[in-house]
Automatic annotation (TrEMBL):
Its main location: other. One of its GO terms (molecular function) is structural molecule activity. Keywords: Bacterial flagellum, Secreted. Residues 7-37 form the Flagellar basal body rod protein N-terminal domain. It comes from Ornithinibacillus halotolerans. This is Flagellar hook-associated protein 1. Residues 101-249 form the Flagellar hook-associated protein FlgK helical domain.
C-alpha cells in the first residue's frame, strides 16, 4: 500500500463531493427553467484494497479506497412521460375539436330569433295564412318575402360552412409545418446526442431538450410508436385528407392535427347535409305549392350550384295553389331539428371530453413534476450535506499532509 494512500483517498472524496455540489448548484440555477429535470450524482465506493490474488499482501483486512462520482443522472420516470404524452395528445385532440365544433355550432345560431328554425317557422306561418287567404296579394307577397329569407339563410349557412372548411385546411397546413419544424429540430438534437454518447458522455441537458420537444410534438400527433428518441429523419405529410408519417398513415384520436382532420370531415358532412336539406326543402315545397304566373306554372324555389333561390318569376305571380295534404306532411322541419340536435350532441361530447382529458393530463403532469422538478428546500439540504462532507474530506487531507510531513521532514534526524 502506498504511503500516499490516505492522501489519494481524501483527494477522491474532495472531487466527489465537489461534483455533487456543482450538480446541486446546477439544479438550483435551473429551478425555474421550463423542461429542466433535476439531476443527481451517483456516488460509488471504490473496490477495496487489496484485491484477491496469490501475491496479495498480508494485512489485517481489506482497506477502502474511498469514493468516486460514478455518474450524473436525471431523476425522471419514463412511464409517467409516456402517460403524459398520451394524455396530452388526447387532450389536445378534444380541445381542438371542441373549439372547431363551437365555431360550427355558432354558425347555425340555434335556438335564436335569426336561426333557420325560426325563419322556417315564420315561413310555415305565412303558408298557413296563405291556405286561409289564397287569393290575397298581400299574403302572397309575405310568402315570397319569407321564402327569400329562408333561401338567404340556407345560403348563409352553406357559405359559412365552406369558409370553415377553408380555414380548417389552412390550420392543418400550419400545424403540419409547425410539427415538421419540431421534428427537424429533434433530428439535429439527436445527432448531437449520439456524438456525445459515442464519447461516453451523458448529455443530460440535451436529453431534457429532447423530452421537451417530444412533449410539444405529442400535442400535434400521436408519438407513441414513432421512435423519436433515435430517429434522425421523420417527416409529416398531409395528402388525400390523411396524415402520413414517413409513409405510414396515422389516424389515432390524438393530437391537434388529427382533430383538425376529423373536424374537416365532420364539417364536410354537415355541409353536405345542409345542401341536401336545401335541395330536399326546395323539391318538397315545389310539390306543395303550384305557382301560376301570366306565362304558366313555375317552381317557387330553385336549387342550383349549391345555392337556393326564389324564382324570379314569382314577382309576376297570379295565384298560389296549395296542396294542403302535402303541406301537413312537410318533413324538412323535423330533419333540420334532428340535424341541429346531432351537432349539439357532438359539441357537448367534445366539451365533456376536453374537460375530462385536461383533468387527467394535469394530474399526470403534477405527478411527473413531483419527481422531476427542482425542490429548493431539498437542494439546500443537499448543499449543506455535501458542503460538510467536502469540509471533512479537506480536514482529512490536512491530517494526511501533516502525517507525511512528519515522516518526510522529521524522521531520521537524531544524531545529525
Amino acid at each position: 500500500m502506498s504511503t500516499f494512500h490516505g492522501l489519494e483517498m481524501a483527494k477522491r472524496a474532495l472531487a466527489a463531493q465537489q461534483a455533487a455540489l456543482y450538480t446541486t448548484g446546477h439544479n438550483i440555477s435551473n429551478a425555474n427553467t421550463d423542461g429542466y429535470t433535476r439531476q443527481r450524482v451517483n456516488l460509488e465506493t471504490l473496490p477495496a484494497y487489496p484485491a484477491a490474488s496469490r501475491n496479495a499482501p498480508k494485512i489485517a483486512g481489506q482497506l477502502g479506497q474511498g469514493v468516486e462520482a460514478a455518474s450524473v443522472e436525471r431523476i425522471r420516470d419514463s412511464f409517467l412521460d409516456s402517460q403524459y404524452r398520451t394524455e396530452n395528445g388526447t387532450a389536445n385532440y378534444w380541445e381542438t375539436k371542441s373549439n372547431a365544433l363551437r365555431q360550427i355550432e355558432g354558425i347555425f345560431n340555434e335556438p335564436s330569433d335569426s336561426g333557420l328554425a325560426t325563419v322556417m317557422n315564420k315561413f310555415w306561418q305565412s303558408l298557413q295564412d296563405l291556405s286561409v287567404n289564397p287569393d290575397n296579394a298581400g299574403v302572397q307577397a309575405v310568402v315570397v318575402e319569407r321564402g327569400e329569407t329562408v333561401a338567404e339563410t340556407f345560403n348563409h349557412l352553406i357559405k359559412n360552412l365552406n369558409g370553415i372548411q377553408s380555414n380548417l385546411e389552412k390550420e392543418i397546413d400550419g400545424a403540419v409545418k409547425e410539427a415538421n419544424a419540431l421534428l427537424n429540430h429533434l433530428s439535429t438534437l439527436n445527432t448531437k446526442i449520439k456524438e456525445l454518447e459515442f464519447t461516453g458522455q451523458t448529455p443530460n441537458d440535451l436529453y431534457d431538450n429532447r423530452d421537451k420537444l417530444i412533449d410539444e410534438l405529442s400535442g400535434f400527433i400521436d408519438v407513441k410508436a414513432l421512435g423519436l428518441e433515435n430517429s434522425e429523419s421523420i417527416n409529416i405529410v398531409y395528402e388525400d385528407n390523411e396524415i402520413k408519417v414517413n409513409g405510414n398513415t396515422i389516424d389515432e384520436k390524438s393530437g391537434s392535427i388529427q382533430a383538425l382532420l376529423d373536424t374537416y370531415q365532420d364539417n364536410n358532412d354537415y355541409l353536405q347535409e345542409v345542401k341536401d336539406l336545401a335541395s330536399s326543402f326546395a323539391n318538397e315545397f315545389n310539390d306543395i305549392i303550384q305557382v301560376e304566373t301570366g306565362e304558366g306554372s313555375i317552381n317557387f324555389f330553385e336549387f342550383n350550384n349549391d345555392e337556393l333561390q326564389v324564382s324570379d318569376e314569382t314577382s309576376n305571380v297570379s295565384a298560389f295553389i296549395l296542396n294542403r295534404d302535402k303541406l301537413n306532411q312537410f318533413k324538412t322541419f323535423n330533419q333540420y331539428e334532428q340535424f341541429i340536435g346531432r351537432i349539439g350532441i357532438d359539441t357537448q361530447e367534445a366539451n365533456r371530453m376536453t374537460e375530462y382529458t385536461n383533468t387527467l393530463k394535469t394530474q399526470i403532469e403534477n405527478q411527473r413534476m413531483s419527481i422531476s422538478s427542482v425542490s429548493l428546500d431539498e437542494e439546500m439540504t443537499n448543499m449543506i450535506k455535501f458542503q460538510h462532507a467536502y469540509n471533512a474530506a479537506a480536514r482529512s487531507m490536512t491530517a494526511m499532509d501533516e502525517m507525511l510531513d512528519r515522516i518526510i521532514n522529521n524522521m531520521g534526524i537524531v544524531g545529525r
